[in-house]
Design brief:
This protein is mainly alpha-helical. The protein has helices at about 20-25, 30-35, 45-80, 85-100, 105-140, 140-165. Helices cover about 65% and strands about 0% of the residues.
């Protein structure tokens, strides 16, 4: 498994680590030895480059082991401090949100939305006062006054009968055995 094909999870405590079985696998130097030397290199230069390559490969393996040990130590410290992956994610989101709020694009958008809100509020206020004025005009119109008078008359007829002690409706309790007019008894 080559490192380019690995799934890299940056929040993983094992990020960038190769399995232990892969740590001790040297880079293919046999295939390199079988390829012909680059043109223009002497045998001494080629040998020197091979020695340097071997040394660099050993350093890479050592660095991977040191990094793995550091990652394990970091994970242990996080565990002892009670820092979970969720807590780290929460801190990252909080930090990112503060970064976004400080960005010029966010500030410009906030200003634009604030202005739009103010203009919308003013427009709704204007519409509301126009509707209020129109309703006031309508209430003072002859048609509304006529309708109001009719409703008042009907109301006084209905309420007026109740004020006199009679609601204008026959009472089933006061009628004795007499059925209501137009209604047959059960």
């Amino acid at each position: 498994m080559d490192s380019a094909g690995q799934d890299i999870n940056l929040n993983s405590p094992n990020k960038g680590l190769l399995p232990d079985a892969m740590m001790d696998v040297p880079v293919d130097t046999v295939g390199a030895a079988q390829t012909p030397a680059a043109e223009g290199l002497t045998e001494a230069e080629e040998e020197e480059l091979r020695a340097e390559l071997s040394k660099v490969e050993e350093e890479i393996v050592t660095l991977r082991q040191v990094l793995a040990a550091k990652e394990r130590h970091c994970g242990e410290l996080r565990r002892k401090l009670g820092l979970s992956a969720l807590e780290g994610l929460k801190q990252n989101l909080t930090r990112s949100w503060h970064d976004v709020q400080g960005s010029p694009a966010y500030k410009k958008t906030q200003e634009t939305l604030s202005q739009a809100g103010q203009k919308t509020s003013a427009a709704l206020s204007t519409v509301g006062s126009a509707i209020s004025r129109k309703l006031g005009d309508m209430r003072n119109s002859a048609t509304f006054k006529s309708l109001e008078d009719r409703v008042g008359t009907i109301k006084s007829k209905v309420v007026g009968g109740r004020e006199n002690g009679s609601d204008g409706l026959p009472s089933p309790a006061g009628s004795g055995d007499k059925p209501l007019p137009g209604h047959e008894p059960f």
